[in-house]
Amino acid sequence: MDTKTIIVSNRLPLQLHLNDGELEMTPSIGGLATGMKSVHKDGKGIWIGWSGLTEEELDKDLSKKIDKLVAEENCATVSLTQYDVDNFYYGLSNRALWPLFHYFMEYTEFEHQYWESYKVVNQKFADAVLEHVEDGDQIWIHDYQLLLLPALIRQHKPEVTIGFFLHIPFPSYEIFRCFPWREELLQGILGANLIGFHTYDYERHFLSSIKRILRLEVNFNEITYHERIVKVDSFPMGIDYKKFHNAAKSHRKLNTEDRSELQQKLDEHFQSSKDAKLILSIDRLDYTKGIPNRIRAFEYFLNKYPEFKEKVRLIMLSVPSRSDVPQYQLLKKETDELVGRINGEFATINWTPIWYFYRSLPFDNLIDLYSSADIALITPIRDGMNLVAKEYVATRTKKDGVLILSEMAGASKEMNEAILINPNNFEQFADAIKTAIEMPLEQQISRNDQLQKRLKRYSVEKWSHEFMKSLKASKEIEKVIVSQPLDKQEQVLMLQKFKAAKSRLLLLDYDGTLTGFQDNPQSAAPDEELLSLLDKVDALNQTNMVIISGRDRKTLEHWFKEKNYSMITDHGVWAKEKKQSWKPLERLRTDWMENIRPVLETFVDRTPGTFIEEKKYSLAWHYRKADPELAQIRTNELNTVVTSLISNNELTVLNGNKVIEIKSSRVNKGRAATYLLSRKDYDFVLAIGDDWTDEYMFEEVPEDSYSIKVGFKKSKARYYIKNTQEVRELLQAIASSL
Ligand code: GDG
Description:
Elements: E1 5-11, E2 14-19, E3 22-27, H1 31-41, E4 46-50, H2 60-72, E5 75-78, H3 82-101, H4 112-132, E6 138-142, H5 149-156, E7 161-165, H6 173-176, H7 182-189, E8 194-197, H8 200-214, E9 218-219, E10 222-225, E11 228-234, H9 241-252, H10 261-272, E12 277-284, H11 291-304, E13 312-319, H12 326-346, E14 354-358, H13 363-372, E15 375-378, H14 387-394, E16 402-406, E17 419-421, H15 426-438, H16 441-457, H17 460-481, E18 484-485, H18 488-500, E19 504-508, H19 528-538, E20 543-548, H20 553-559, E21 566-569, E22 574-576, E23 582-584, H21 593-606, E24 611-614, E25 618-622, H22 628-645, E26 651-655, E27 659-664, H23 669-679, E28 684-689, H24 692-700, E29 706-710, E30 719-721, H25 724-735
Parallel strand pairs: 1-4, 1-6, 4-5, 6-7, 7-8, 8-11, 12-13, 12-15, 13-14, 15-16, 16-17, 18-30, 19-20, 19-28, 20-21, 28-29, 29-30
Antiparallel strand pairs: 2-3, 9-10, 10-11, 21-22, 22-23, 24-25, 25-27, 26-27
The structure holds GDP-alpha-D-glucose.
């Protein structure tokens, strides 16, 4: 089938301007546009985003013209009003999500109106995507403006393959939990099949929020969600290495007279002193980039090491950004004032310490700067990746030059050969500048050699290619992992076989199968609806209905005292056949409990929200209410400790649903099922259960049995069914089939 990839981002990779009512279009030269080029141009690929012009700025004619122009570039627009831009973009995206995800809590504004608009605009994007999407297509969604989009698309196209990539950090759970609509955001992202981050730390933070806020099961980097497996992974974004490297090479060959005005000014600086050094920083004027901090640290450096005065110069390019948001206006003012003050304080006739440009420069000038700088000082307070650091290294064609990089930038994870600093430590900051200035050339070369090798190999094309490869593979995971669904068609077949059978056995697990889980195990008593349903099934002719549970005999006896059901309790210690009395299937020792109980007690003491359930033949440690991450650590620990205490094979540790149970190895539901099957010939067997303890039963029932797992989990069962509600519906169908 001829499928395509749809790319979605807030802005199209095109710049559209209105000049005296005339439309002008230039392609965007940003890293993302370059990286996505091969994906975009592949087949019938299409890129969907906002044009940058609001509905108010355009009349019908102009809109049509835009659509036609962008269509020639395989793009399609999402139309936004000024209200949308103010509330969705400048509001929720840039006054709530951006500061929150960069740990600037004090800048967040959680306005309900922004959130409403964010939902509306994400729906507009979904509508635009749905106009173009066909079965079998892949969709790749970018960034924090579109966190709700994956789920909105999935609602209408459940089978489509969706990838999502976040370009900014994903904050730790403690920060993320502050967002008022946090569940909706997570559910929105989980509409994707693959979720990508720049670094493993962001991935880990995301998974932690998934576990703690949505309480979902996470297995390594896979989340089970609504009968789907969602994969989470890190893909550090690279740059167009060749473009920067080759531009710098050509730049070196330029004759003096062909050099730009900027380059000539830079050359003058180097002529001013034989020890002259140029330190460069480039960023959008954004509070996350640590600009005032950097200027103050530079001042600190000049005071600490005055010998570098008149020799070292900081050249700062700050690109205007989001100037409609008040914090950005304040930052502009603060930066201007700081530069003014420091230049005023230190300047001499021949030297001003800081050259400051507040503007965007053409690419060639960017290369002038990168090529001339001895040191790049990239010191964000928080940054998803930071491509400037990578671009600087790529332009060092002679492999000289030193990169000082903040450890708060995602890029620091892969750029160990840079001088890594904590931007809040001024001592370290000043010393790093000194070290960089004095670094021997061989050391510079050997560091850049390593850095360049990596940047060349993991370029932005490689990044997009790896993501797409993983996205295509993510669809396959689901196919291998679970049993087939017991859908309507299979159910009809099953009921036919049930009816035709002469002797039937129904093995029903209790917790998580017939009823949902409760925080306290004693609260899971059967409700009226369940009792009357079980009565009906139990009354069927030639049908042996058995409740087979890990619960103790006392509890089940109490719950079903009025009834005469067949029951197996304590995982198979006790059996009661219909209208008969209880019989032990095994004679068990319990003296081991004295030794194991104190061990479990130490775990209860150290893990809030957990408790011990003492059964006649086993001990269970429940952790449903505990912090999921702490519980994960403790369960590993407990497994190791208990396993080391059990010297012979007499005891087994069972990992159930949020419970660890220690019991005799001689009993399990599999052995109990075998016992029942040996007592009579059955020509229809159904076994249904939800956790690990039921797997023993699935293994022992005859191959043609209907073994059914409750929940979308890995299992030996032939089928799966979604939840306890569906189990009850199935039993209802069985009850009314005869
Ligand atoms: C976000 C995340 C993440 C800068 N000034 C000029 C100019 N640039 C180009 C640079 C570079 C790009 O802009 C800036 O990219 P960064 O990665 O440094 O930062 P953000 O804009 O904040 O980007 C960031 C990124 O997304 C990708 O996922 O790395 O962490 O915040 O390519 O070269 N280009 C031109 N003139 C300029 O004056 N032509």
